[in-house]
Design brief:
This protein has three helices and no strands. The protein is mainly α. Helix 1 packs antiparallel against helix 2 and helix 1 packs parallel to helix 3. The longest helix is centred in the last third of the chain and has 55 residues, at about 55-105. InterPro entries: FliT.
């Protein structure tokens, strides 16, 4: 049960970090989570786990709910980044067009009217 509680707490930490936009420790959290998942998987064959099955099931449901919230935030972040990348692409293309027209204009001959 302690492992499931640790996993829930870790999932909550990941969620809070993601909400704050701080992704610096995300890789560390995910590695720790993988370790906990393996440990929980090893406990599945332990008959003692059935004694606290309702509590374990409740923790698992909570972990899954938190995971869904994290997935939703990740999808939102991906959409924002995709929109920003699209906007940057448009700006770069506009800059390229501007530079090409400026270089064409600069290479054209200029006539100076000396009479005026």
């Amino acid at each position: 049960m302690l492992l499931l509680e640790k996993m829930r707490d870790l999932s909550l930490s990941i969620l809070e970090e993601f909400k704050k936009g701080d992704l610096e420790n995300l890789a560390l959290y995910l590695r720790e989570r993988d370790t906990l998942i393996k440990a929980v998987g090893n406990l599945a064959s332990d008959p003692a786990i059935l004694e606290d099955a309702p509590k374990a099931l409740g923790l698992i449901r909570e972990i899954l709910r938190i995971d869904e919230e994290i997935k939703g935030l990740i999808k939102e972040r991906i959409q924002v980044l995709a929109q920003e990348a699209g906007q940057m692409r448009k700006e770069v293309e506009a800059l390229r067009k501007f530079r090409s027209t400026m270089s064409e204009t600069a290479s054209q001959s200029r006539f100076v009217d000396r009479k005026s």
